[in-house]
Amino acid sequence: MQISYRLLLTGTAALGTMAVPAAAQTLNLTVGIPRLSVAEYHRPYVAIWVEKEGATPRTLSVWYDYDMKKGEGTKWLRDVRQWWRASGRTMSFPADGVTGATRAPGDNKISFVAGKGPLGALSPGNYTLIVEAAREVGGREVVRLPFAWPPKPGASVKAQGSAELGAVALNFSK
Amino acid sequence: MKARLMIAGALAALMLPATAQAHRQWMMPSSTTLSGTESWITVDAAVSNDLFYFEHVPMRTDGIVVTQPDGSTGKIENAATGKYRSTFDVHLTQPGTYRIGSATTNVMGSYMLNGKQERLPRGTTKDKLASVIPAGATDVQVAEASNRNEIFVTLGAPSTGIFKPTGSGIELVPVTHPNDLVSGEAATFQFLLDGKPAAGLKVTVIPGGIRYRDALGQMDLVADQDGKVAITWPQPGMYWLNASVGGGREGGEGGGPGGPGAPGAGAPGAAPAPRPARPAGPPQRRAAYVSTLEVLAP
Fold first, then answer.
1. Is the pLDDT reported for residue A115 higher than 70?
2. Interchain CB distance below 8 Å, A3 and B297
3. pLDDT over 50 at B260, yes or no
4. What's the gap in Å between the CA of B130 and the closest CA on chain A?
5. Could you give the number of structural domains in chain B?
6. Cβ distance B191 to B229 under 8 Å?
7. Looking at this predicted complex, what is its ipTM?
8. pLDDT tens digits along B197-229
9. In 3-state terms, what secondary structure has residue A80?
10. What is the distance in angstroms between the Cα of A70 and the nearest Cα belonging to chain B?
Protein backbone atom coordinates (compact mmCIF):
# COMPACT_ATOMS: atom_id res chain seq x y z
CA MET A 1 0.00 0.00 0.00
CA GLN A 2 1.29 3.40 -0.91
CA ILE A 3 -0.31 5.06 2.04
CA SER A 4 1.87 6.04 4.85
CA TYR A 5 0.79 8.07 7.76
CA ARG A 6 3.49 10.62 7.86
CA LEU A 7 4.02 13.14 10.50
CA LEU A 8 3.57 16.68 9.46
CA LEU A 9 6.97 17.92 8.47
CA THR A 10 8.68 19.04 11.56
CA GLY A 11 12.18 19.06 10.26
CA THR A 12 13.38 16.51 12.77
CA ALA A 13 14.40 12.98 12.19
CA ALA A 14 12.15 12.52 9.18
CA LEU A 15 15.08 12.13 6.84
CA GLY A 16 17.52 10.59 9.25
CA THR A 17 19.52 11.34 12.28
CA MET A 18 20.46 14.83 13.31
CA ALA A 19 23.73 16.10 11.96
CA VAL A 20 24.92 19.27 13.55
CA PRO A 21 27.29 21.13 11.26
CA ALA A 22 29.79 23.59 12.65
CA ALA A 23 28.47 26.33 10.37
CA ALA A 24 25.01 25.89 8.87
CA GLN A 25 24.97 24.92 5.25
CA THR A 26 22.58 26.87 3.09
CA LEU A 27 20.89 25.63 -0.06
CA ASN A 28 20.49 28.45 -2.54
CA LEU A 29 17.94 27.69 -5.17
CA THR A 30 17.04 29.67 -8.25
CA VAL A 31 13.79 28.72 -9.93
CA GLY A 32 13.28 30.14 -13.39
CA ILE A 33 9.65 30.71 -14.29
CA PRO A 34 9.30 31.36 -18.01
CA ARG A 35 7.39 34.31 -19.35
CA LEU A 36 4.71 32.80 -21.55
CA SER A 37 2.80 34.44 -24.33
CA VAL A 38 -0.61 32.97 -23.70
CA ALA A 39 -4.10 34.44 -23.75
CA GLU A 40 -4.83 33.54 -20.16
CA TYR A 41 -1.86 33.49 -17.84
CA HIS A 42 -1.85 32.55 -14.20
CA ARG A 43 1.29 32.23 -12.16
CA PRO A 44 2.09 28.59 -11.59
CA TYR A 45 1.72 26.71 -8.37
CA VAL A 46 5.22 25.54 -7.46
CA ALA A 47 6.27 22.91 -4.95
CA ILE A 48 9.86 22.36 -3.85
CA TRP A 49 10.77 19.30 -1.87
CA VAL A 50 13.62 16.92 -1.12
CA GLU A 51 13.62 13.17 -1.32
CA LYS A 52 16.05 10.59 -0.11
CA GLU A 53 15.61 6.93 -0.80
CA GLY A 54 13.88 5.23 2.07
CA ALA A 55 13.04 8.47 3.85
CA THR A 56 9.91 10.55 4.09
CA PRO A 57 9.96 13.34 1.50
CA ARG A 58 10.25 16.79 3.00
CA THR A 59 8.43 19.78 1.56
CA LEU A 60 10.52 22.96 1.57
CA SER A 61 8.24 25.45 -0.09
CA VAL A 62 4.89 25.66 -1.85
CA TRP A 63 3.87 28.71 -3.83
CA TYR A 64 0.14 28.92 -4.31
CA ASP A 65 -2.83 31.24 -4.00
CA TYR A 66 -2.72 31.11 -0.22
CA ASP A 67 -4.64 34.35 0.31
CA MET A 68 -7.94 33.48 -1.35
CA LYS A 69 -10.99 33.61 0.85
CA LYS A 70 -11.82 30.43 2.75
CA GLY A 71 -8.52 28.91 1.67
CA GLU A 72 -9.93 28.23 -1.77
CA GLY A 73 -6.47 28.34 -3.28
CA THR A 74 -5.74 24.94 -1.74
CA LYS A 75 -8.27 23.36 -4.09
CA TRP A 76 -5.66 23.10 -6.85
CA LEU A 77 -2.73 21.94 -4.76
CA ARG A 78 -3.47 18.41 -5.92
CA ASP A 79 -2.66 19.47 -9.47
CA VAL A 80 0.98 19.67 -8.43
CA ARG A 81 0.48 15.98 -8.55
CA GLN A 82 3.85 14.36 -7.91
CA TRP A 83 4.39 16.56 -4.92
CA TRP A 84 0.82 16.05 -3.79
CA ARG A 85 1.34 12.31 -3.74
CA ALA A 86 4.83 12.42 -2.26
CA SER A 87 4.17 14.87 0.50
CA GLY A 88 1.42 17.46 0.07
CA ARG A 89 -1.57 15.28 0.81
CA THR A 90 -0.36 14.55 4.32
CA MET A 91 0.16 18.23 5.14
CA SER A 92 -2.26 20.87 6.26
CA PHE A 93 -2.34 24.37 4.85
CA PRO A 94 -1.23 27.02 5.32
CA ALA A 95 2.00 25.34 6.42
CA ASP A 96 4.42 27.29 8.57
CA GLY A 97 7.58 28.25 6.74
CA VAL A 98 6.40 26.39 3.64
CA THR A 99 3.43 28.32 2.28
CA GLY A 100 4.33 31.17 -0.01
CA ALA A 101 2.72 33.38 -2.61
CA THR A 102 2.88 32.49 -6.30
CA ARG A 103 5.78 34.13 -8.07
CA ALA A 104 6.07 36.12 -11.25
CA PRO A 105 8.03 35.02 -14.31
CA GLY A 106 11.77 35.47 -13.90
CA ASP A 107 14.46 34.00 -11.69
CA ASN A 108 13.10 33.42 -8.24
CA LYS A 109 15.63 32.92 -5.50
CA ILE A 110 14.94 31.07 -2.30
CA SER A 111 17.27 29.54 0.25
CA PHE A 112 16.97 26.91 2.93
CA VAL A 113 19.25 26.57 5.92
CA ALA A 114 20.21 23.14 7.15
CA GLY A 115 19.03 22.48 10.66
CA LYS A 116 16.37 25.17 10.46
CA GLY A 117 12.83 25.56 9.22
CA PRO A 118 11.40 23.19 6.65
CA LEU A 119 14.73 21.75 5.55
CA GLY A 120 15.77 20.68 9.03
CA ALA A 121 18.83 18.57 9.59
CA LEU A 122 20.00 16.25 6.85
CA SER A 123 21.82 13.01 7.46
CA PRO A 124 24.65 12.26 5.01
CA GLY A 125 23.50 10.64 1.80
CA ASN A 126 22.19 11.18 -1.68
CA TYR A 127 19.21 13.46 -2.07
CA THR A 128 17.10 14.86 -4.84
CA LEU A 129 15.65 18.32 -4.74
CA ILE A 130 12.54 18.42 -6.87
CA VAL A 131 10.76 21.42 -8.29
CA GLU A 132 7.31 20.94 -9.79
CA ALA A 133 5.22 23.64 -11.40
CA ALA A 134 1.56 23.40 -12.44
CA ARG A 135 -0.20 26.28 -14.10
CA GLU A 136 -3.93 26.92 -14.22
CA VAL A 137 -5.16 26.39 -17.80
CA GLY A 138 -1.58 25.46 -18.61
CA GLY A 139 0.79 22.55 -18.22
CA ARG A 140 2.89 20.93 -15.56
CA GLU A 141 6.57 20.18 -15.32
CA VAL A 142 8.99 18.58 -12.90
CA VAL A 143 12.74 19.02 -12.71
CA ARG A 144 15.01 17.02 -10.46
CA LEU A 145 18.33 18.11 -8.98
CA PRO A 146 20.35 15.33 -7.35
CA PHE A 147 22.88 16.30 -4.71
CA ALA A 148 25.06 14.64 -2.11
CA TRP A 149 24.98 15.65 1.54
CA PRO A 150 27.14 17.08 2.94
CA PRO A 151 27.91 18.99 -0.26
CA LYS A 152 31.42 19.43 -1.58
CA PRO A 153 32.62 23.03 -1.46
CA GLY A 154 31.50 24.85 -4.57
CA ALA A 155 29.13 22.10 -5.66
CA SER A 156 26.23 23.14 -7.84
CA VAL A 157 23.48 21.37 -9.69
CA LYS A 158 21.55 22.67 -12.66
CA ALA A 159 18.51 21.50 -14.54
CA GLN A 160 16.58 23.02 -17.38
CA GLY A 161 12.84 22.97 -17.70
CA SER A 162 11.29 23.02 -21.13
CA ALA A 163 7.78 24.35 -20.71
CA GLU A 164 6.56 25.45 -17.30
CA LEU A 165 9.99 25.88 -15.73
CA GLY A 166 13.14 27.57 -16.99
CA ALA A 167 16.62 27.09 -15.59
CA VAL A 168 16.68 25.72 -12.06
CA ALA A 169 19.96 25.91 -10.18
CA LEU A 170 21.06 24.79 -6.76
CA ASN A 171 24.29 25.73 -5.01
CA PHE A 172 25.53 25.60 -1.46
CA SER A 173 27.07 28.13 0.87
CA LYS A 174 27.91 28.44 4.52
CA MET B 1 -41.77 -20.96 -22.85
CA LYS B 2 -43.27 -17.53 -22.61
CA ALA B 3 -43.26 -17.70 -18.84
CA ARG B 4 -39.65 -18.72 -18.84
CA LEU B 5 -38.68 -15.78 -20.99
CA MET B 6 -40.54 -13.49 -18.68
CA ILE B 7 -38.70 -14.95 -15.76
CA ALA B 8 -35.38 -14.49 -17.47
CA GLY B 9 -36.29 -10.87 -18.05
CA ALA B 10 -37.46 -10.44 -14.52
CA LEU B 11 -34.29 -11.95 -13.18
CA ALA B 12 -32.19 -9.57 -15.21
CA ALA B 13 -34.29 -6.68 -14.00
CA LEU B 14 -33.77 -7.74 -10.43
CA MET B 15 -30.03 -7.50 -10.67
CA LEU B 16 -28.36 -4.16 -10.40
CA PRO B 17 -30.65 -1.71 -12.11
CA ALA B 18 -30.01 -2.94 -15.63
CA THR B 19 -26.91 -5.05 -15.37
CA ALA B 20 -28.28 -6.72 -18.42
CA GLN B 21 -25.84 -8.59 -20.59
CA ALA B 22 -23.54 -6.40 -22.61
CA HIS B 23 -24.41 -3.29 -20.74
CA ARG B 24 -22.07 -1.83 -18.22
CA GLN B 25 -23.11 0.10 -15.20
CA TRP B 26 -20.82 2.80 -13.98
CA MET B 27 -20.38 5.90 -11.91
CA MET B 28 -17.96 8.56 -13.02
CA PRO B 29 -16.72 11.03 -10.41
CA SER B 30 -15.55 14.47 -11.50
CA SER B 31 -12.42 13.92 -9.46
CA THR B 32 -10.99 11.26 -7.16
CA THR B 33 -8.02 13.12 -5.67
CA LEU B 34 -8.85 16.38 -3.97
CA SER B 35 -7.12 18.97 -1.87
CA GLY B 36 -8.37 21.67 0.44
CA THR B 37 -10.31 21.53 3.67
CA GLU B 38 -13.56 20.70 1.90
CA SER B 39 -14.55 20.05 -1.66
CA TRP B 40 -17.40 18.98 -3.89
CA ILE B 41 -17.48 16.30 -6.48
CA THR B 42 -20.17 15.55 -9.00
CA VAL B 43 -20.86 12.06 -10.26
CA ASP B 44 -22.46 10.84 -13.48
CA ALA B 45 -24.15 7.47 -13.20
CA ALA B 46 -25.32 5.48 -16.19
CA VAL B 47 -25.63 2.12 -17.86
CA SER B 48 -24.14 1.92 -21.31
CA ASN B 49 -22.11 -0.18 -23.70
CA ASP B 50 -19.24 2.19 -24.29
CA LEU B 51 -17.20 3.47 -21.38
CA PHE B 52 -17.73 6.11 -20.25
CA TYR B 53 -20.44 7.53 -22.50
CA PHE B 54 -24.05 7.92 -21.48
CA GLU B 55 -25.94 6.45 -24.38
CA HIS B 56 -28.40 3.93 -22.99
CA VAL B 57 -30.17 4.41 -19.67
CA PRO B 58 -29.46 6.32 -16.47
CA MET B 59 -28.49 4.50 -13.31
CA ARG B 60 -30.95 4.98 -10.49
CA THR B 61 -29.63 7.00 -7.60
CA ASP B 62 -32.06 5.96 -4.86
CA GLY B 63 -29.86 3.18 -3.53
CA ILE B 64 -26.62 5.14 -3.48
CA VAL B 65 -25.05 5.53 -0.08
CA VAL B 66 -22.14 7.77 0.87
CA THR B 67 -19.79 6.44 3.54
CA GLN B 68 -17.57 9.12 5.01
CA PRO B 69 -13.98 8.53 6.14
CA ASP B 70 -15.04 8.24 9.79
CA GLY B 71 -17.59 5.58 8.86
CA SER B 72 -20.63 7.82 9.21
CA THR B 73 -23.17 8.10 6.43
CA GLY B 74 -23.05 11.13 4.18
CA LYS B 75 -25.51 12.10 1.52
CA ILE B 76 -25.84 12.67 -2.17
CA GLU B 77 -27.17 16.08 -3.16
CA ASN B 78 -28.73 17.64 -6.24
CA ALA B 79 -29.60 14.24 -7.67
CA ALA B 80 -31.25 14.34 -11.05
CA THR B 81 -32.05 11.65 -13.56
CA GLY B 82 -32.19 12.39 -17.24
CA LYS B 83 -32.77 10.31 -20.30
CA TYR B 84 -29.29 8.83 -20.44
CA ARG B 85 -27.67 9.47 -17.13
CA SER B 86 -28.16 10.47 -13.54
CA THR B 87 -26.03 13.01 -11.82
CA PHE B 88 -25.52 13.92 -8.20
CA ASP B 89 -23.09 15.80 -5.98
CA VAL B 90 -21.26 14.84 -2.83
CA HIS B 91 -19.84 17.40 -0.43
CA LEU B 92 -16.55 16.20 1.03
CA THR B 93 -16.06 17.72 4.45
CA GLN B 94 -13.73 15.24 6.15
CA PRO B 95 -10.17 14.41 5.23
CA GLY B 96 -9.75 10.88 3.98
CA THR B 97 -11.39 8.41 1.65
CA TYR B 98 -15.11 8.31 0.87
CA ARG B 99 -17.06 5.44 -0.59
CA ILE B 100 -20.02 6.24 -2.82
CA GLY B 101 -22.00 3.26 -3.97
CA SER B 102 -24.85 0.89 -3.78
CA ALA B 103 -24.89 -2.63 -2.42
CA THR B 104 -27.94 -4.83 -2.74
CA THR B 105 -28.75 -8.46 -2.11
CA ASN B 106 -31.78 -9.99 -3.74
CA VAL B 107 -33.13 -13.46 -3.80
CA MET B 108 -34.79 -14.39 -7.04
CA GLY B 109 -36.13 -17.54 -8.46
CA SER B 110 -39.13 -19.51 -9.49
CA TYR B 111 -41.13 -22.59 -8.69
CA MET B 112 -43.81 -24.72 -10.29
CA LEU B 113 -47.24 -24.80 -8.73
CA ASN B 114 -50.22 -26.58 -10.27
CA GLY B 115 -48.41 -26.84 -13.57
CA LYS B 116 -47.67 -23.12 -13.73
CA GLN B 117 -44.36 -21.45 -13.21
CA GLU B 118 -44.38 -18.68 -10.65
CA ARG B 119 -41.60 -16.37 -9.74
CA LEU B 120 -40.59 -15.14 -6.33
CA PRO B 121 -41.84 -11.68 -5.48
CA ARG B 122 -39.53 -8.75 -5.90
CA GLY B 123 -37.59 -7.90 -2.78
CA THR B 124 -37.56 -11.42 -1.39
CA THR B 125 -34.84 -11.90 1.18
CA LYS B 126 -33.13 -15.08 2.24
CA ASP B 127 -34.82 -15.28 5.61
CA LYS B 128 -38.28 -14.82 4.07
CA LEU B 129 -37.66 -17.49 1.48
CA ALA B 130 -39.55 -20.21 3.28
CA SER B 131 -42.62 -18.03 3.65
CA VAL B 132 -42.90 -17.07 -0.01
CA ILE B 133 -42.72 -20.56 -1.41
CA PRO B 134 -46.15 -22.14 -0.99
CA ALA B 135 -46.70 -25.69 0.08
CA GLY B 136 -46.83 -28.02 -2.89
CA ALA B 137 -44.37 -25.99 -4.95
CA THR B 138 -41.97 -28.07 -6.96
CA ASP B 139 -38.92 -27.43 -9.05
CA VAL B 140 -37.82 -24.52 -6.90
CA GLN B 141 -34.98 -22.54 -8.43
CA VAL B 142 -33.41 -19.87 -6.30
CA ALA B 143 -30.43 -17.62 -6.73
CA GLU B 144 -29.12 -15.02 -4.36
CA ALA B 145 -27.51 -12.06 -6.06
CA SER B 146 -25.37 -9.49 -4.33
CA ASN B 147 -24.43 -6.50 -6.40
CA ARG B 148 -22.04 -3.79 -5.45
CA ASN B 149 -21.13 -0.72 -7.46
CA GLU B 150 -18.88 1.73 -5.71
CA ILE B 151 -16.37 4.46 -6.30
CA PHE B 152 -13.81 6.04 -4.02
CA VAL B 153 -12.76 9.64 -3.68
CA THR B 154 -10.20 11.11 -1.32
CA LEU B 155 -9.85 14.53 0.21
CA GLY B 156 -6.25 14.93 1.38
CA ALA B 157 -4.42 11.72 2.24
CA PRO B 158 -6.05 8.36 1.46
CA SER B 159 -7.47 6.53 4.47
CA THR B 160 -8.64 2.96 4.92
CA GLY B 161 -11.39 3.23 7.53
CA ILE B 162 -14.18 2.59 5.02
CA PHE B 163 -12.75 -0.68 3.75
CA LYS B 164 -13.91 -2.81 6.63
CA PRO B 165 -15.56 -5.76 4.91
CA THR B 166 -19.23 -6.41 5.54
CA GLY B 167 -18.98 -10.08 4.61
CA SER B 168 -21.66 -9.85 1.94
CA GLY B 169 -21.07 -10.18 -1.78
CA ILE B 170 -17.87 -9.20 -3.53
CA GLU B 171 -15.82 -6.57 -1.75
CA LEU B 172 -12.58 -4.81 -2.56
CA VAL B 173 -9.90 -4.58 0.09
CA PRO B 174 -7.02 -2.32 -0.78
CA VAL B 175 -3.48 -3.55 -0.83
CA THR B 176 -2.84 -0.57 -3.05
CA HIS B 177 -5.26 2.19 -2.18
CA PRO B 178 -7.74 2.76 -5.04
CA ASN B 179 -7.07 6.49 -4.88
CA ASP B 180 -3.33 6.02 -5.19
CA LEU B 181 -3.06 4.61 -8.69
CA VAL B 182 -0.41 5.75 -11.14
CA SER B 183 0.16 4.53 -14.67
CA GLY B 184 3.11 2.22 -15.07
CA GLU B 185 2.87 1.08 -11.47
CA ALA B 186 1.29 -2.18 -10.42
CA ALA B 187 -1.65 -1.97 -8.06
CA THR B 188 -2.86 -4.89 -6.01
CA PHE B 189 -6.41 -5.34 -4.75
CA GLN B 190 -7.81 -8.15 -2.72
CA PHE B 191 -11.34 -9.32 -3.41
CA LEU B 192 -13.53 -11.06 -0.91
CA LEU B 193 -16.62 -13.09 -1.62
CA ASP B 194 -18.89 -13.16 1.41
CA GLY B 195 -15.96 -12.16 3.58
CA LYS B 196 -13.54 -14.83 2.36
CA PRO B 197 -10.74 -14.38 -0.18
CA ALA B 198 -12.31 -14.79 -3.62
CA ALA B 199 -9.75 -17.24 -5.00
CA GLY B 200 -10.07 -17.62 -8.75
CA LEU B 201 -12.35 -14.62 -9.14
CA LYS B 202 -12.30 -13.30 -12.68
CA VAL B 203 -11.74 -9.60 -12.84
CA THR B 204 -12.13 -7.48 -15.95
CA VAL B 205 -10.56 -4.07 -16.34
CA ILE B 206 -11.36 -1.83 -19.30
CA PRO B 207 -9.95 1.64 -19.91
CA GLY B 208 -12.43 4.39 -20.65
CA GLY B 209 -12.51 6.19 -23.98
CA ILE B 210 -13.76 3.19 -25.95
CA ARG B 211 -15.50 5.36 -28.52
CA TYR B 212 -12.25 6.67 -29.92
CA ARG B 213 -10.34 3.47 -30.41
CA ASP B 214 -10.80 0.14 -32.15
CA ALA B 215 -9.45 -2.29 -29.58
CA LEU B 216 -11.31 -2.71 -26.33
CA GLY B 217 -8.05 -2.97 -24.39
CA GLN B 218 -9.67 -5.27 -21.88
CA MET B 219 -7.48 -6.86 -19.24
CA ASP B 220 -8.69 -10.20 -17.91
CA LEU B 221 -7.28 -11.14 -14.56
CA VAL B 222 -7.79 -14.03 -12.18
CA ALA B 223 -7.48 -13.59 -8.44
CA ASP B 224 -4.89 -15.77 -6.75
CA GLN B 225 -5.68 -17.98 -3.79
CA ASP B 226 -5.71 -14.96 -1.50
CA GLY B 227 -8.22 -13.26 -3.79
CA LYS B 228 -5.57 -10.81 -4.95
CA VAL B 229 -5.07 -9.39 -8.40
CA ALA B 230 -2.23 -7.17 -9.56
CA ILE B 231 -3.02 -4.67 -12.27
CA THR B 232 -0.45 -2.60 -14.14
CA TRP B 233 -2.12 0.41 -15.67
CA PRO B 234 -0.94 0.98 -19.22
CA GLN B 235 -1.90 4.64 -19.31
CA PRO B 236 -3.50 7.27 -17.10
CA GLY B 237 -7.25 7.62 -17.22
CA MET B 238 -10.46 6.19 -15.88
CA TYR B 239 -10.83 2.42 -15.77
CA TRP B 240 -13.91 0.30 -15.31
CA LEU B 241 -13.38 -2.72 -13.09
CA ASN B 242 -15.85 -5.55 -12.97
CA ALA B 243 -15.89 -8.91 -11.26
CA SER B 244 -18.70 -11.38 -10.90
CA VAL B 245 -19.52 -14.91 -9.94
CA GLY B 246 -22.52 -16.72 -11.36
CA GLY B 247 -24.92 -15.06 -13.74
CA GLY B 248 -22.64 -15.38 -16.76
CA ARG B 249 -21.89 -11.71 -16.84
CA GLU B 250 -18.87 -9.89 -18.13
CA GLY B 251 -15.99 -10.54 -15.81
CA GLY B 252 -17.46 -13.77 -14.53
CA GLU B 253 -17.61 -17.29 -15.80
CA GLY B 254 -19.19 -17.81 -19.18
CA GLY B 255 -21.87 -20.39 -18.47
CA GLY B 256 -21.56 -22.61 -15.48
CA PRO B 257 -23.97 -22.40 -12.60
CA GLY B 258 -26.31 -19.55 -13.14
CA GLY B 259 -24.72 -18.70 -16.46
CA PRO B 260 -26.30 -18.63 -19.88
CA GLY B 261 -28.16 -21.85 -20.39
CA ALA B 262 -28.60 -22.33 -16.71
CA PRO B 263 -32.09 -22.99 -15.43
CA GLY B 264 -34.30 -20.05 -16.01
CA ALA B 265 -32.19 -18.48 -18.72
CA GLY B 266 -34.14 -19.93 -21.69
CA ALA B 267 -32.80 -18.69 -25.01
CA PRO B 268 -35.37 -16.96 -27.23
CA GLY B 269 -36.78 -19.32 -29.80
CA ALA B 270 -35.17 -22.36 -28.30
CA ALA B 271 -37.28 -25.29 -27.29
CA PRO B 272 -37.53 -25.59 -23.55
CA ALA B 273 -34.63 -27.72 -22.48
CA PRO B 274 -35.45 -30.66 -20.29
CA ARG B 275 -35.15 -29.28 -16.84
CA PRO B 276 -33.21 -31.35 -14.38
CA ALA B 277 -35.06 -31.83 -11.16
CA ARG B 278 -33.47 -29.58 -8.58
CA PRO B 279 -34.37 -29.77 -4.97
CA ALA B 280 -34.82 -26.53 -3.08
CA GLY B 281 -31.29 -26.43 -1.77
CA PRO B 282 -29.11 -23.53 -0.80
CA PRO B 283 -29.48 -20.67 -3.24
CA GLN B 284 -27.06 -20.35 -6.12
CA ARG B 285 -24.61 -17.59 -5.41
CA ARG B 286 -24.42 -14.69 -7.75
CA ALA B 287 -22.41 -11.62 -6.98
CA ALA B 288 -21.12 -8.74 -9.00
CA TYR B 289 -18.74 -5.92 -8.30
CA VAL B 290 -18.21 -2.74 -10.30
CA SER B 291 -15.95 0.19 -9.70
CA THR B 292 -14.51 3.08 -11.66
CA LEU B 293 -10.88 3.76 -10.86
CA GLU B 294 -8.86 6.80 -11.75
CA VAL B 295 -5.23 6.29 -12.68
CA LEU B 296 -3.07 9.38 -12.68
CA ALA B 297 -0.03 10.14 -14.77
CA PRO B 298 3.24 9.76 -12.91
1. yes
2. no
3. no
4. 45
5. 1
6. yes
7. 0.84
8. 999 999 999 999 999 999 999 999 999 999 999
9. coil
10. 9
